[in-house]
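Team,

Forwarding the record for the chain on the shared tracking sheet. I've put the sequence and predicted structure together so nobody has to dig through attachments.
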Amino acid sequence: MYTPEILKTENLTRYCIRLVAFGLHMPELLDRYADRAEELAAQLQPNQFGLILNAFARASHRHEKAAGLVRGDRGQ
């Protein structure tokens, strides 16, 4: 659970939800989950992607790198 770098899509989704549900989320850990989700984005099913985004919203967490990509900053 504390090493998202080795998780595949199903477990990444499952553990991200559980981290938030049980109050174990920390900003640094959620950033690592976001980085891993970004790496696996092409393999994520739409429902898995939605569940991860929902978990981030419940934790009131925002991944600045991903938010910049959505805004169109592209690393500027």
